[in-house]
Task: structure prediction
Amino acid sequence: MIVVDIETSGTNASKHGILVIGAIDTLDITRTFEKRCRLFDGGHIDLESLKYNGFDKVDINDKSLPSEEEIVRDFLRFAMKSDDHTLAGHNPIFDISFIIASCQRWGIDNTLASRTIDMHSVCVAHLANRGKEYPVIKNRSALDDDSIMEYVGIPCEPKPHISPLDGARHEAEALSRMLYNKNLLPEFKEYRIRF
Result:
């Protein structure tokens, strides 16, 4: 599977744009991808999203950066070289919705698999298999990426989320621990699996 994490200029894939894509191929952890791009002309900006990911208006409009179309094409080429094109992550439907919107915007043939592996759902199932309930706050699951990292025994992803490759690496490690009960990446080897 390919664990992907995308930072964007907002939460609506039809009007906001991709700013950076990070990914790791869990079948070959030496294969990683991280590329930034400028916001497409006419793309909307949500200032709260920029606070979350650490970018500002100058960063995302830097004309020296490649276009969204270029990095999406590069990402698809990266993904197609894997033996498993399934995307995974904390909330992969968010990430794939931006890839789909970008493909539509630029007339790119989307070659990704439609099924995804959602780290949140994997964690809910893992807890249930251990006879535990997932936390609920305000009638909704309170399992965010930080609480899942704590659950599997690794540090939280650094903030702001300016490097989605860091996010993808954290998510890949968490998924490996929950799905296979084993460490995946060398940088997390020192952290004991908690369950």
